[in-house]
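Fold it.
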Amino acid sequence: MIRINLLPVRAAQKKEKIRAQILVLIVSLAAAVVVCAGVYAMTAMKISEQQAQIARTNDEIRQLQKVIGEVGRYKKLAEELQAKLNVLDEIKQGQSGPVHLLDQLSQVLPQRVWVTSFKESGGAVSINGIGLNESVVATFMQQLEASHFYSGVELQVTEQITQDGMKLQRFSLAARAQKPAAAAVAN
């Protein structure tokens, strides 16, 4: 009978199995490395995209902060302008006030009363003058109180003086200037 030595075949088969297993191991390791590299690349790409998005958002924030700064500056300028306009309105109202006060004073001034000084400051009015007698001064005070531009008319001082041989009354009045309603001014 013929004898066949199968030992070398088994050894060769064993070597083939080991080679196949090593090849599978190498292929598996290569596939794992490729998969890990792919996952790493995708993660790195996502990170770079997020960083780019963060950079764009930061740029946008900086631009919006500039716009907010400009808006704040415009608001400040608008407030300053409004304050200036308010001052101009006050000045315009203040300009017409003394004119009305003096006009009203000339309208209520009796014939035998002479005003020697008129001062208005912050709504307080001081009037100094000379009258023929006490009743003319009293009439002047009543007419002044009845006007729409004066209130709280008070006699501060009255004294009798002699001028050019005539006995006259020197007086000093205090009053408050007031702004009448538009309807009262029209009258």
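The helical segments are 7-108, 134-146, 182-186.
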